[in-house]
Specification:
By secondary structure, this protein is mostly helical. The protein has one domain. It contains six helices and no strands.
Length: about 120
């Protein structure tokens, strides 16, 4: 049990350190860093490397933004096997729609409950 938490912390931390290095050394904007991390997750999933990382590190690999890129490619590839080219587009939306919807809904609820600083 301790090892599971340890590796989740280490792998998640490494992903965060990579993002911080992109900010500090390469002077990338948050948008550029976010996009690069999503693309990195997508590339790793396309090479079948991200799923073993999730199996090894659990939440350490499935919580960071790189997992979103993984989900996009994973869903697209699964649906492409079933439905061809159309499945590439529908698969991305099918797999990620619940997470995006939850982010929008909870963001809206948070904005209603708390006074934003402006």
């Amino acid at each position: 049990m301790f090892a599971m938490f340890f590796w989740a912390f280490v792998i998640g931390g490494i992903i965060c350190v990579i993002g911080q290095v992109m900010f500090d050394l390469f002077k990338l904007t948050p948008g550029h860093t976010l996009s690069a991390m999503v693309v990195a997750g997508a590339i790793l999933d396309g090479l079948n490397l991200y799923e073993p990382l999730i199996n090894f590190a659990g939440a350490g690999a499935s919580i960071p933004i790189t997992s979103f890129g993984n989900s996009l490619v994973h869903g697209a590839l699964q649906e492409a096997e079933k439905h061809g080219l159309v499945g590439v587009l529908t698969g991305m939306f099918e797999v990620t729609s619940s997470g995006i919807s939850a982010a929008i809904i909870f963001g809206f609820i948070g904005a209603l409950l708390f006074k934003p600083k402006g």
